[in-house]
Design brief:
The complex is a heterodimer of chains A (189) and B (1029). Chain A is of the alpha+beta class. Chain A has helices spanning 2-11, 49-56, 92-97, 122-127, 173-185, and strands at residues 23-26, 29-33, 38-43, 67-70, 73-79, 82-87, 104-107, 112-118, 144-149, 152-160, 163-169. Chain A has five helices and eleven strands; from the N terminus they run αβββαβββαββαβββα. Classes of the chains: A alpha+beta (189), B alpha+beta (1029). Chain A: GO terms for molecular function: sarcosine oxidase activity.
Amino acid sequence: MAKAAAKTATTGTLRRPALAGREVLAGGARLSVLPPAERMSLRAPAASVAALSRALGLDLPVKPKTSASSGARTALWLGPDEWLVIDQTGDPLADCAKVKALHSAVGISHRNVAISASGPGAEATLAAGCPQDLSLQTFPVGACSRTILGKVEIVILRTAEDAFRVECWRSFSDYVLDFLTEAAGDAAG
Amino acid sequence: MTQPFRISGAGRLTPARSLRFTFDGKHLSGVSGDTLASALLANGVHLTGRSFKYHRPRGILSAGAEEPNALVGVERDSARRTPNVRATVQELYDGLTAVSQNRWPSLSFDVGAMNDLASPMFSAGFYYKTFMWPKAAWKKVYEPKIRAAAGLGVAPDQPDPDHYASRFAHCDVLVVGGGAAGIAAALAAAESGVRVILADEQAEFGGALRYEAGAKIDGTDGWAWAQQSVAKLAAMDNVRLLPRTTAFGYYAQNFVGLVERVTDHVARPDRHAARERLWQVRAKRVVLATGAIERHMVFADNDRPGVMLASAARAYLNHYGVAVGRTVGVYTANDSAYYAALDLKKAGVNVAAIVDLRDNPSGPAVEEARALGIEVNHGRAVTKVGGKLRVSSMTIEPKGGGGGRTVAIDALLTSSGWTPSVHLFSQSCGKVAFDEATKRFLPGTYAQDCVSVGACNGTDGLEATVAEAFDAGEKAAREAGGTRAKAPPPLTPPLKGEGDSEAFTPPSPLRGGVRGGGSGHPVVDASESWAGGMLGSGPGAGAGTTVKAFIDFQNDVTAKDIRQAVHEGMRSIEHVKRFTTNGMATDQGKTSNMHGLAIAAETLGKPIPAVGLTTFRAPYTPVTFGSIVGHAKGKLFDPTRRTPIHPWAERQGAVFEDVGQWKRAWYFPRAGEDMHAAVNRECVTVRQAAGLFDASTLGKIEVVGPDAAKFMELLYTNPWEKLDAGRCRYGIMLREDGFIYDDGVVGRLAPDRFHVTTTTGGAARVMNMMEDYLQTEFPHLNVWLTSISEQWAVIAVQGPKSRETIAPLVEGIDLSDAAFPHMSVREGKICGVPTRLFRMSFTGDRGFEVNVPADYGEAVWEALWAEGQKHGACAYGTEAMHVLRAEKGYIIVGQDTDGTVTPADASVDWAIGKKKKDFVGIRGLSRPDLVAAGRKQLVGLKTRDPKIVLEEGAQIVGDPKQPIPMKMIGHVTSSYWSENCGHSIALALVVDGKSRLGDTLHVPMPDGTVEVEVTGMVFYDPKGERLNG
């Protein structure tokens, strides 16, 4: 049976991401549920940042609301000692496992669901429920923040002038997609 | 077009663009650009409603947001019936259906009008002193009758089918009000490159320029200048224009709430379009350019339809091309009403007479009136009017009294002066100051980063207004950090020829001001026209008179009511307001407050500022519930959280229950089973074979760092330092006061890593409390907390066949009792995916909790289900889970505890590390009351009749024969039928419960008293042998 299960795993049907492949075109934005990614919650004091940066292959950002990317890996500053590391291909947990410097690395790949909001109405779509100033001048490409959308917590990363990555916890993804869908209908560009 | 009062060539609307509408079923036509009010007036309709209390016929008073009278219902369909719509702000659309309110059987013949005759009964404060006896009659007779008789529109009785949008916005400068001042401020601010939002409640920007015919700015007609300027602003990408948008509330730190009406003016709104949009704006600077509101004159029967504000009549003529009558009278105490008379006269309307309270009015307006041949009566007053459904005459008397004469009119335009709109300024916590010279309250001390400009700041005259506003806009932009300032704008401030353009430099005749001084009316004393006038009751309506001279039309408050309130002992304006309800209607006294205050001050013999001013509260004008609710309705009212295994449970026909935001499988009924049967079967199956339970909603926190164990020692009562990696412990968390806060099984994955579980409901607050203590009390600890509640799906596999069920799927973990004893945790694989496998039990039987990354949850469940089927396993829901744990006396925090239960009360004090010197709550535990005798303790209850299942929450007494009220000594916290035990079981908090074991107590219920025996908390397998069974 274990064999059979393993076989099933390799066919990929074991993994059933929330809202897999959902895509909505509404008003001024295209909303796409993004494929699964490796995610890690990284906590560390300032003294460990250099060692962790080396291990991760990018400079962990230390300025509020900024992110750093290298290849398919992005580190988002969420707090003075907190980063969300998202990776499409590699394994940031494994990279940090070697680091002796003080830190906490916890795998949260399945905790979050990512939705991309793009198009001329993307900013207004988010602004329906997010009280932050999302204008390009205060929230440029690469800016990120842990914030709220309506009644739930989200993390946003501006990936382009007219595109955001919205991360939320798995069970809130229905709400977030529904909220963004309704909001996009009122955000025609 | 049959609109007898539409004047050809007047106004700015295009007559060809005609629209149809109905009022009380009568088919009428209007013109695109009309408001409902202007269209009604074009058709000669003044009578639009009946008043709140006296059912007096009422007409259109104003042409704006301050309208207290012309409130109608607007109906699109059976679900879209909006009551109390101000006809003066409702834009006309083709097919609009409007109905009058508060009348029966018809608007012109209203039975309720007998209230008017019985008005002595309904005078100020009547509901405080009339109908007080007999007491019972108030609720059954008086109140329902009064409520039915008074009131305005009827609330819709169907769900609102519209949807409402919301938007957060940030800007450097928010300009509220799009009149000349607001536009000038926005232009100045926008030119510097900063982000500007300009909002105005009207459909078109321009404010008072709408009616100030002849005003010239920048060499062009004022209205045209406004439209050109707005077009220019619209073309700038740093400017957002919000017409049809009311700034209704000014909150802390320049947070302003605005509501934009998106479709209320559209004949056939797009089904997908939001009806309204709530804007929540955070502005670095706010410029308030909210203007001023004209007051009416207070005299007998001043509420008759056809009696209206002078500026309104001017707006209907100059913007909408509508004459409000054929023969109009004017009654004023200042200059501004003269311009209405002049404009009407020039448009061919007969102006019967101007009645001016002032003894020697002079100045250009007065002279022009005389020159046009208008009769000007100075030192005289209108003391009463004739007509009921429409004014038919006015009686002119010397203001000292004696010798009146009656003049036939069909409209009477009145003005007693202008009240600066300091509503938002006041809401911003700014303090107003009374300007003695002009008898008005003006912005005094500012509390926030805002500035008032123009009429709302008491600034008189268009030139001064535009200059002040432009400077303020520029300054606000600079202060907001307008670093991206462009080159000096082509439009420069209006004053003193500075700059390279004559923009804003008004032609010299304009110097003198506006309201009273448009360019067509040169050399006007601006201070007189803006600030002049009078407050309070006019001649014939003063002290000692009993006439109905209204000050608050919407709440039917007269000058006499205010005086009566003072005579009955009210001294503070706040008391006068509540006693008379002056200013308490939905118009919030925009036209009445100053009159009421002046009359109260006069009656009290005190100066106005000594009597005070009532508070201005949000919203400035009524705001729909829909716009406040916004997206938060239906499925967006609150998030609905579902576990990764939810789809499987749904396919199995599970019944779900709401647990906070979660949907949890409650039970899994099979064909023909009711809840009782399903739960009984599930409970028995788990103990006889095995059961699968979705425990994914449990809170989970990963505690990581070299000081993880130290942190756990401080947050939980239990000892953790010596817990080996790979082992688990049931942990209890207290609050500082010593009461149980949460509990859960904690596994130590590594010396520096704990996998903590919390209750489902406690997930967020436990995380918050831990973070709070870590950051404030224990910041020296090197440990970090990460919520992993949703990282892991949790499948509890419980029962004697649980090991057989999981074994074939697990790799890399020795499942033998020796290698993997009860209360252990291992990391390995199941179905080829990573797992954190816990050996633990919330049923008392052998059990496991399979944690897998969430996306694998459903597939792993299916695999376990398939294995379980071979052993007769079932899926069980939260109800069976509750029963099974209660059979074992396992508590549920929040059900068997209520925030006043200590570990000892709940018999879980074994979980307190006896040698520990510190943990949250340790001092609380030694408080005298927490160690005293007589505490309520958790015990088991068995009913003498085993079939009776007690009600949770039922009270417990010792002696059922004692007199009522009985002394209650406890209550039932959990109660179920236990199929496994063959009798009902219950847990209860009972005073000194542990010393009553074996005693008989009683549970009085409506249909008899239930006899119960106090027992221990464990009903099933008291020796705990089944954990390894």
